[in-house]
Each structure stands twice: as structure tokens, then as C-alpha cells.
């Protein structure tokens, strides 16, 4: 193996395991979808004989998914998908499971981050579960000999799906991957309510500053940007949206938000939140005109949306303004404050817990059924990016409704015939 498991890295493993177990058990109480699937998995063993490699944000809700996959019969190896999003105690609790090995550790440098990913791949996976596509890319780049034995995988987030589609377009993706991010049960809930709510909470917890009365600039109006904009507006902030897509810009305008360019918004914002999945959303030209004391946060997967190289080169001094807040002091005395080192604020900020548990239950329910689908029907999918089959998305929704005690109508035979026919008219 390339690196040591988390249990071999921590000094007080027993205490960490106990702390992590409490977090996992609390999350499990509120994850009715994954728990329902876990019960089925234990009975049916759909992943028996499989080895699942995971690169995810290793926190309590992820742990509930990980243990559900192990309950389905899989051997699981997991590491982090961001250097600052791992909860070490949760990682230790996972590593204590007889069928799980965790290499995730918070605060590692790039070398240790990729050493852990190599260690996960050294388990010779047959299924990959990814968040950001680093794991999939590394398999293709450095372990091509494993590709024939990998049935397929699942990708969690917007940025990762973008990368996979680019690989697919170039003919470089050599095994099937489910675009978990793009299915309704993930996209309409996790991206909007999860990213929006968790990002604003993380900003408040990190700074102890109010959102109300401030001007919040949201970079990008995809599903994540919509969530941030709506939650900030609900907290009584004035919201400005910046966009590159004319349709999404028009949607933001029609939903009551001011829409302008980042060049203009940079002068007015108190809080900036980037959600695009692209690089250089906020750069030197924007830093030059920002107000003293602004807060700069990123809710995209990688730390490239706020150009920190530009900011550091412009700064006369860099200070630790507060735990999780780095202050860049400009020559004219203005201080621009970056949260969580420009990494995704809802998970990387010191007190951040990630998306609400109930929201992640839906997303990880999709991950669980997608992994089951790959294990049981993987030969039906060619190499490339695949949408989650609608029947799986509906299955997860039905489990959630049942857990909430919510009943819905069903089509009558006459209604179904009417909807399926082209012959009915005026």
C-alpha cells in the first residue's frame, strides 16, 4: 500500500472512533432512505464479492452510505476528495469497521492526498464511487490495467460530471459512469437546498457575522447558485447574480434577483460566493475594486474559482484574521477575507458540517442504488457517462415519501391510456 490507514495515523484511535461513531449514529437516525436500502442490502447482498473504491467528503452522512455498501457485501476502501473536508473521527470510525479501510485525513498536503488515493486504488476496485472525478481520472491515468476489471462507477457532483463528460467526449472514459449529480433526486434537492443552506450557515459560523442587510454576490446561477441566492435572500440579504449563460441569467432576473457582470458586482458586494465549477470567476481586476472587509467564499468543488495567486501577489500582508478566515491586506489598507482557503466553504470551513443530513440522505440513496445497479446490471452499460435510470430515481423518491408518511395519487387505467395515446384530441 502507498499510505497508512487513518487508524495508523492517529494517536488516540479509541477516542476518535467513539466520537466518530456518535456522529454516524446521529446521521443514521435521520437518513431513512439509506437505512431502508441498507436493510434490503443486508438481506440480498447485491455487492457480494465486489470491492468499492470511494473518494468522497468523509463525514457522517458519507459514512452511513459507506457502511450501507459494506452491509451489501462489499469490501470498501475510502479516502477524501478534498484536503479540508474530512472529519478525522468519522474516518477512524469507518476504519474500525471490519470491511472498510479509510485513508482519509483532514489537512493533508497534495502529496499525502494523492498517496491516500493511490492506497484506495491498490485495493483493486471493481466499482468506483467518486466526488469530483479525481479517483476516476487517476485510475485511467496510472492504473489502466485495472479498467477491464472495473464494472463501472458513480459520480456525485457537478464538477465531476463535467470532467467525465469531457473525458467521454474525447473518447478517454473507458468504463461506464453514472452521473448521479444530474438526476432529479440529487439535482433538485442536494444542489439547491443542500449547497444553499450549508454554504450560508458555514459563512455565518466561520465569521460570526450577519447575512441580513448585506449584499451577497452569487457567481453562477446553476442549481447550486440558485440555492445560494434563494437562501441568502431568505436571510434578508440583497442578492446580485453574475452569469455567462443568457438563459440562466434571464431566469435569475425573472426570479427577482439583480443580474450584472462580476466587474460591476465586485464594487458592491459584501459577501461573494462562487458556484460555477469553473476557474477564475473572481480575479485581480475584481480584487482591485472590492470594499474593505469583504468575505470571499467558494461553494464549487475545487479551489480555483477565486484566484488566490492573484490575491496573494497583490497583498502587502497575509494574516489569519480568524479561524478559517485568511485576511489579505492590500497596499491601500483594505482587507479582503477568504474563507476556508478558497475551498468549498460548506465542508472545508472549520465548523462546517456539510449539507443537512436529510438532503444527503436523498443523494446517497441515489449513490447506493446506482452502485447496486452497476453490480447487478453493469454489463448493460457501455463505457461512457450514463444518466441514472428513471426507475432508480423514482425508487428513492418513493422510499422517502413512505418514510415521511406522504401518500400521492396514482393514475387510473383510463388516465394512463389517455396519456399513452396520440389519438385523443379535441
From TrEMBL:
InterPro entries cross-referenced by the UniProt entry: Adenosylhomocyst_ase-like_sf (IPR042172), Adenosylhomocysteinase-like (IPR000043), Ado_hCys_hydrolase_NAD-bd (IPR015878), NAD(P)-bd_dom_sf (IPR036291), S-Ado-L-homoCys_hydrolase_CS (IPR020082)
Keyword field: Cytoplasm, Hydrolase, NAD, One-carbon metabolism
Protein name as catalogued: Adenosylhomocysteinase
GO molecular function, one term: adenosylhomocysteinase activity
Metabolic or biological pathway: Amino-acid biosynthesis; L-homocysteine biosynthesis; L-homocysteine from S-adenosyl-L-homocysteine: step 1/1
Gene name of the encoded protein: sam1
Keyword Cytoplasm attached: yes
Record GO cellular component, one term: cytosol
Principal subcellular localisation of the protein: cytoplasm
E.C. number(s) listed in UniProt: 3.13.2.1
Entry function: May play a key role in the regulation of the intracellular concentration of adenosylhomocysteine.
Stretches assigned to the S-adenosyl-L-homocysteine hydrolase NAD binding domain: 191-352
Cofactor(s) for this UniProt protein: NAD(+)
Binding of NAD(+), residues: 157-159, 191, 220-227, 243, 278, 299-301, 346, 355
Reactions that this protein is recorded to catalyse: S-adenosyl-L-homocysteine + H2O = L-homocysteine + adenosine
Binding site for substrate: 131, 156, 186, 190
Family as reported in the entry's similarity comment: Belongs to the adenosylhomocysteinase family.
GO biological process terms, semicolon-separated: L-homocysteine biosynthetic process; one-carbon metabolic process; S-adenosylmethionine cycle
PANTHER family associated with the record: ADENOSYLHOMOCYSTEINASE
Manner of cofactor binding, per the entry note: Binds 1 NAD(+) per subunit.
Cellular compartments annotated: Cytoplasm
Amino acid at each position: 500500500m502507498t499510505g497508512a490507514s487513518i487508524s495508523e495515523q492517529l494517536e488516540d484511535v479509541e477516542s476518535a472512533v467513539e466520537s466518530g461513531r456518535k456522529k454516524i449514529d446521529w446521521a443514521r437516525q435521520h437518513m431513512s432512505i439509506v437505512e431502508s436500502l441498507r436493510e434490503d442490502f443486508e438481506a440480498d447482498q447485491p455487492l457480494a464479492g465486489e470491492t468499492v473504491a470511494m473518494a468522497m467528503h468523509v463525514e457522517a452522512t458519507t459514512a452511513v452510505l459507506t457502511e450501507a455498501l459494506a452491509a451489501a457485501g462489499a469490501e470498501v476502501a475510502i479516502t477524501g476528495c478534498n484536503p479540508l473536508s474530512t472529519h478525522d473521527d468519522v474516518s477512524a470510525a469507518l476504519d474500525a469497521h471490519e470491511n472498510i479501510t479509510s485513508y482519509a485525513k483532514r489537512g493533508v498536503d497534495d502529496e499525502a492526498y494523492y498517496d491516500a488515493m493511490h492506497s484506495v486504488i491498490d485495493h483493486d476496485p471493481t466499482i468506483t464511487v467518486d466526488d469530483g472525478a479525481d479517483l476516476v481520472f487517476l485510475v485511467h491515468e496510472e492504473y489502466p490495467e485495472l479498467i477491464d476489471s472495473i464494472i463501472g462507477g458513480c459520480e456525485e457532483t457537478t464538477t465531476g460530471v463535467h470532467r467525465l463528460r469531457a473525458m467521454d467526449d474525447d473518447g478517454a472514459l473507458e468504463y461506464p459512469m453514472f452521473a448521479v449529480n444530474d438526476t432529479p433526486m440529487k439535482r433538485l434537492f442536494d444542489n439547491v437546498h443542500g449547497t444553499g443552506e450549508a454554504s450560508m450557515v458555514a459563512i455565518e459560523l466561520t465569521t460570526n457575522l450577519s447575512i441580513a442587510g448585506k449584499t451577497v454576490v452569487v457567481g453562477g446561477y446553476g442549481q447550486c447558485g440558485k440555492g445560494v441566492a434563494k437562501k441568502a435572500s431568505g436571510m434578508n440579504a440583497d442578492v446580485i447574480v453574475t452569469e455567462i449563460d443568457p438563459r440562466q441569467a434571464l431566469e435569475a432576473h425573472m426570479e427577482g434577483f439583480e443580474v450584472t457582470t462580476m466587474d460591476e458586482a465586485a464594487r458592491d458586494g459584501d459577501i461573494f460566493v462562487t458556484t460555477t465549477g469553473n476557474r477564475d470567476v473572481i480575479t485581480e481586476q475584481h480584487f482591485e475594486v472590492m470594499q474593505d472587509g469583504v468575505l470571499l467564499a467558494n461553494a464549487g468543488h475545487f479551489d480555483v474559482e477565486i484566484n488566490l495567486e492573484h490575491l496573494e501577489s497583490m497583498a502587502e500582508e497575509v494574516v489569519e484574521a480568524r479561524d478559517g478566515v485568511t485576511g489579505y491586506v492590500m497596499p491601500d489598507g483594505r482587507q479582503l477575507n477568504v474563507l476556508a482557503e478558497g475551498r468549498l466553504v460548506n465542508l472545508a470551513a472549520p465548523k462546517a458540517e456539510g449539507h443537512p443530513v436529510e438532503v444527503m440522505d436523498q443523494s446517497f440513496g441515489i449513490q447506493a442504488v446506482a452502485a447496486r445497479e452497476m453490480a447487478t446490471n453493469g454489463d448493460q452499460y457501455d463505457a461512457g457517462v450514463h444518466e441514472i435510470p428513471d426507475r432508480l430515481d423514482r425508487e428513492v423518491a418513493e422510499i422517502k415519501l413512505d418514510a415521511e408518511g406522504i401518500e400521492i395519487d396514482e393514475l387510473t387505467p383510463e388516465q394512463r391510456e389517455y396519456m399513452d395515446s396520440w389519438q385523443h384530441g379535441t
